[in-house]
Design brief:
alpha+beta, binds zinc ion
Length: about 120
């Protein structure tokens, strides 16, 4: 698992389309191939965050993106994962995420030190 991206965009009023949000992550973190948003599958969503599983059509790597819509705008954090879509869907059902938990996880992954460690791997 490694962090690959964290990016802020200006806020858009009534912005709630996760496929639109996904466009801010335009490339596979492994092979840099552009992927199509129809390769992404939503497996969890609440009013704050969407969790999306993507499998790259070129290198078959899987990654999970968390798209967070906060007051200031839109941000995303992605993690490379060994889990397939069925795995993440099952895990999500076992451990339901609350908004607080998502924000907590997001803040953890957004910390500069964590990003630095991930980049050095
Ligand atoms: Zn790829």
């Amino acid at each position: 698992m490694g962090l690959y991206m964290s990016r802020m965009l200006p806020s858009k009023p009534h912005f709630d389309n996760w496929r639109e949000a996904l466009k801010i992550i335009s490339r596979c973190p492994i092979c840099s191939e552009n992927y199509h948003t129809d390769e992404a599958k939503l497996f969890a969503k609440n009013e704050t965050a969407s969790l999306v599983h993507i499998t790259c059509h070129k290198c078959q790597s899987s990654f999970v993106a968390m798209i967070v819509m906060l007051g200031q705008g839109l941000s995303s954090v992605g993690m490379v994962t060994d889990l397939n879509f069925a795995d993440v869907e099952r895990l999500h059902k076992v451990v339901p995420l609350t908004t607080d938990e998502i924000i907590e996880g997001y803040q953890f992954m957004s910390q500069a030190e964590f990003i630095k460690e991930a980049v050095q791997q």
